[in-house]
């Protein structure tokens, strides 16, 4: 059957794309690569098996000149492979700052252009089609958020949390773990401020009131403290806490866009802070443009919660620099402070099993399987599907179970063990009197303590019987464990060869015990694959640690399959979204 014209075009592009990537990985000269590109090889093409693009391949080969050429020719700076890594992430893995910077700067230029086109499209008739994915849920739409019900509750650790329901999920609007970030923010905003004795403060977005409480707790309370908060549930929460009665506090019950004229009339703020929910970067940039009129003068200070693109180091870096450039456009001299925060993953335990069964438990980074030859093998966990075919998975589990079972005879081991225990206890007890009486009859020396001597002989008999029964089985089990360890070690070595040290999973196996006839297989996932405590199955990179709040896994959104968390996207890349996530290096 002949291909249609469109199918033939796709086939040609696929062949050219594969040829281009293969040529880069073979180390072909840059002139040869240029010729392939000039022949029409698509720079946007990504391999089906790995999702690798030409830019990924060039970064992997650490060819700086080629990376620059591909960027100049229009390679997509923010494309991600099947493991959700960008080409810049590949460069970072080699500590290649030069290539990372080239790709990052390309991202900054692209986003600057996109922002410019977006702003111009508001006042001009569009001459081209711009594709943008719109998220109309409360997580990304201000209007939907303001119509949603918020819940102010405490987790089991007593921390205040504010959540909004989006579909079947509850998403954290503000969490108690942000306290430390807000403390450092207030410190940098207010410490040594020339007007510290009569501060005028403006905060956009109350949330849990963490930063507003810190402003009120300053050694000298602000003489004027404006809070802009439009959500009716938050306003009721503020009333319950008595914020409407606090001296110097003025609350504007509407969006900042609707309050800006009133704020401009007040003007002259010494400190301005904004941390809104469900607003994108375009809204934040719009707020930047009002700063020259809101701030009192050169000594005034401004800050915002910087969670821009926080799920990826490259996206975070690009949007941080983008914010710097836009702040510079309005005359703001910006400084970013690194806040080192330590988060820990909640501990997870796997219950032991004494039965012949197979169970699957997912902990904070491990997959634990209970395997038995009496049960069918489980399917490949989705975390491993990019690295493990069903055939290889089945072969490994079958080999592991069979090897372990050769050194496991449950009923024989249990009968032998019970017999050994009984013999070790009963034989010495029965023979004690026999030994004592025999020695007492034949002993001529009345100074000999026959009772003590009989006890020593009986104890030696106990040790002998114990060793007689348990030494063979211990040696047998030890040999079995070594066989299993050797098998698993061979697989780990093969995975490291195929996928690299930092991208391969690590297998560990525990042979069947005397009272457990299942083999325990623990697969530790690499950082790129393991779920974190933000939410189940969230594929966040290794430099983002989980929040210390153990309930965060429930209150943050989750994704039930491999990929980036749900958010506003363009294509498959999260863009223009201010995410409230915990990450190790927070910037304010």
UniProtKB/TrEMBL annotation:
GO function term, MF aspect, one: protein arginine N5-methyltransferase activity
The membrane spanning regions, by residue number, are: 415-436, 456-476
Q: Where are the ANK repeats?
A: 50-82
UniProt KW tRNA-binding keyword? no
Q: Which UniProt keywords apply?
A: ANK repeat, Membrane, Methyltransferase, S-adenosyl-L-methionine, Transferase, Transmembrane, Transmembrane helix
Which residue ranges does the record assign to the RMT2 domain? 136-385
**Listed GO biological process terms:** methylation
Q: Any one cellular component term from GO for this entry?
A: nucleus
Which species is this UniProt entry from? Lentinula edodes (Shiitake mushroom)
Superkingdom assignment: Eukaryota
**What is the protein name given in its UniProt record?**
Arginine methyl transferase
What InterPro entries does the record point to?
A: Ankyrin_rpt, Ankyrin_rpt-contain_sf, RMT2/GAMT_Mtase, RMT2_dom, SAM-dependent_MTases_sf
């Amino acid at each position: 059957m002949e291909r249609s014209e469109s199918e033939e075009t796709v086939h040609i592009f696929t062949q050219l794309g594969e040829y281009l990537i293969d040529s880069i990985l073979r180390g072909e000269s840059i002139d040869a690569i240029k010729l392939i590109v000039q022949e029409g090889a698509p720079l946007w093409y990504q391999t089906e098996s790995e999702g690798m693009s030409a830019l990924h391949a060039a970064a992997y080969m650490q060819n700086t000149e080629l990376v620059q050429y591909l960027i100049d020719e229009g390679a997509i700076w923010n494309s991600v492979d099947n493991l959700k890594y960008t080409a810049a992430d590949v460069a970072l893995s080699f500590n290649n700052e030069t290539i990372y910077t080239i790709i990052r700067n390309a991202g900054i230029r692209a986003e600057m252009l996109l922002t410019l086109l977006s702003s111009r499209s508001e006042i001009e008739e569009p001459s081209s089609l711009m594709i943008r994915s719109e998220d109309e849920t409360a997580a990304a739409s201000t209007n939907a958020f303001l119509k949603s019900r918020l819940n102010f509750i405490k987790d089991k650790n007593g921390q205040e949390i504010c959540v909004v329901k989006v579909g079947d999920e509850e998403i954290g609007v503000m969490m108690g773990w942000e306290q430390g970030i807000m403390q450092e923010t207030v410190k940098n905003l207010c410490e040594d401020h020339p007007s510290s004795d009569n501060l005028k403060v403006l905060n956009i977005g109350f949330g849990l009131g963490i930063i507003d409480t810190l402003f009120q707790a300053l050694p000298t309370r602000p003489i004027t403290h404006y809070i802009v908060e439009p959500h009716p549930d938050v306003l009721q929460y503020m009333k319950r806490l008595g914020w409407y009665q606090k001296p110097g506090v003025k609350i504007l019950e509407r969006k900042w866009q609707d309050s800006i004229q009133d704020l401009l009339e007040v003007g002259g703020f010494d400190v301005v802070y904004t941390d809104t929910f469900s607003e994108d970067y375009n809204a934040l940039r719009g707020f930047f443009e009002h700063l020259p009129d809101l701030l009192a003068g050169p000594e005034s200070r401004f800050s915002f919660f910087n969670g821009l693109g926080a799920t990826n180091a490259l996206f975070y870096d690009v949007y941080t620099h983008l914010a710097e450039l836009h702040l510079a456009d309005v005359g703001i001299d910006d400084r970013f402070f690194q806040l080192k925060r330590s988060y820990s993953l909640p501990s997870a335990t796997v219950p032991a099993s004494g039965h012949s069964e197979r169970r699957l438990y997912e902990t904070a980074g491990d997959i634990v399987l209970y395997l038995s030859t009496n049960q069918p093998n489980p399917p490949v966990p989705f975390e491993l599907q990019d690295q493990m075919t069903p055939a290889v998975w089945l072969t490994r589990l079958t080999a592991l179970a069979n090897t372990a079972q050769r050194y496991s005879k449950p009923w024989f081991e249990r009968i032998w063990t019970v017999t050994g225990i009984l013999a070790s206890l009963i034989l010495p007890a029965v023979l004690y009197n026999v030994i004592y009486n025999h020695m007492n009859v034949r002993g001529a020396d009345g100074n000999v303590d026959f009772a003590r001597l009989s006890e020593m002989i009986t104890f030696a008999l106990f040790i002998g019987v114990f060793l007689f029964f348990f030494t063979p089985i211990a040696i047998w089990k030890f040999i079995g464990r070594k066989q299993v360890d050797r098998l698993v070690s061979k697989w780990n070595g093969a995975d490291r060869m195929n996928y690299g040290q930092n991208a391969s999973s690590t297998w560990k196996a525990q042979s069947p015990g005397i009272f457990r006839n299942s083999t325990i297989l623990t697969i530790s996932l690499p950082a790129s694959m393991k779920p974190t405590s933000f939410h189940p199955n969230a594929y966040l990179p290794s430099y983002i640690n989980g929040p210390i709040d153990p309930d965060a896994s429930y209150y943050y959104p989750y994704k039930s399959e491999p990929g980036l968390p749900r958010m506003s996207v363009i294509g498959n890349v999260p863009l223009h979204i201010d995410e409230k996530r915990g990450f190790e290096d927070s910037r304010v």
